[in-house]
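FAQ: What does the model actually see?

It sees only this:
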Amino acid sequence: MSSELFKLPLLADRDLSAPIAWRHGVPVSGHQFLADVARFAPVLREGGPAVNLCVDRYAFAVSLAAALVRGQTSLLPPDARADTLARLSTHGDATYAIVDAPDLETPGMPCLRIEDRAPLADAGGAEVPLIPADLHAVSLLTSGSTGAPQPHAKTWKTLVGDVAAAVGRLAELLGRPSLAGLTLVATVPVQHSYGLESSALLGLLGGAAFDSGRPFFPADVARSLSSVPRPRALVTTPFHLKTLLLSGIELPPVDLILSATAPLSPQLAAQAESAMQGVLIEIYGSTESGQVATRRPTQSEVWQTFGQIRVHAEADAAGQERFIFQGDFIPEPTPMADVLELVDARNFRLLGRANDLIHVAGRRSSLGYLNHHLNSIPGVDDGAFWLPDDVTDGVVRPVAFVVAPTLTTQTIIARLRERLEAVFVPRQVVQVAAFPREGTGKLTARALREFALAQLARDDSPVQLTHDVPVDHPAFAGHFPGQPLVPGALLLSQVLEALRSVPALSARLGARPTLAAAKFLSPVRPGSELVIDLTPETGAARGVRFEVRCAGVTAASGRWTPAVAGRE
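And it is asked to produce this:
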């Protein structure tokens, strides 16, 4: 049979009368899902691709399936910012967005809203659609070094194979013949590759069911888990998991805990298994390759690849060693941005990100390795090493930032001396309230660098920070409907928030600084990225001048000064 005619089903072989999803504690059967897809598919705009911005996981799955039935590609961006959407739509194409939030705007892009519909009284009888195997099903979009979304295309055949490999491994680890009856609760966004594969697709193609929400706060996670029957699984990240366990909230039993995005310490894994009475499995992979390996960190530090996937080392054009994964559902050999230690072709240890490697006083390590030991110290709620640009005594000295309210700096340094070579023990440990992590728990290199420079800035140091204006900020209501603008008051509040994030400048201005001058020079739209320059005044003046730029154009400028004596 020619590849053009080869088709694969939209749903795995399953009992269609059983739940495929749960919404607010109410089950949705496979029959109802197929009926909702059949109702929505004809409503889609012609052409495509469709940018799937649905937050509700069930609405996302219906939209994704409807696009597949219509032969359309779904674009899955990392966010819904205006500049992100603008890069996805070129003049004259048929790109459109699908949204479920009533107040989400998509400026410059046609928008189709998926609405909740009453369940059909008789939703049975619909056949499972067959999807061309080579259909360009989704493009997962990640922000590259330039900030522009980088598309990674996946065919339906690749997605089906990816999930099938994971199902076999997960069912084996759970001691079950399949994942039928398992319900997934995920804290990660479904537009992320890991969130897609381990929630919506594990439901559609793996025989499991998924909860439609995306709980974030610990109480919400516990509530969502309690709202679905056992066996149940929590799909999360190390950062979310640590926050959940530190909250002290009583958690219901969880049969399977899936974790990805960053390496997980054995201590945290053991704590999670004890608290939730389940098996914790780490997933390894990338947007380019899909999920390719697992390990159970409480039992082994070695990762094992899925199915027939193999890994080998080779040198790139610059002579640098890189590690290539190939076989099974991976369409072509794919290099990983990690440093591995190969046990054999199917087993390996993860040493850290390739761009994480650092050299201090002739010794080599990785930031991931250092962060692992920092976060394994009891009392450290969160922590990250950072390597500054400047050199002290001819040597670059790492700095550690920690959220550890019950520990002293001296205690943390003493614990690190027990775990690390002397050259990697930081001379400076900075206590902070929190890190600027993304929704998946990731702390990007750019965000950490800005954060570190702000924390270490002197009283007279200029500082540059960036800030993304949310597209759904409530301040846009009533501000020029159809052409929303960021109000001047919101810009000033963002500047003040930036000032307060820099301890030295916050101390210079005091608790209640005064706005001495402000000019608004150019409009700012929702979803824009703001670049905020803060420049301390020299001499007797103790103020801080600011400039806010958007896309290289100055949007606002002005000056904050300390509060007048007696008026604080």
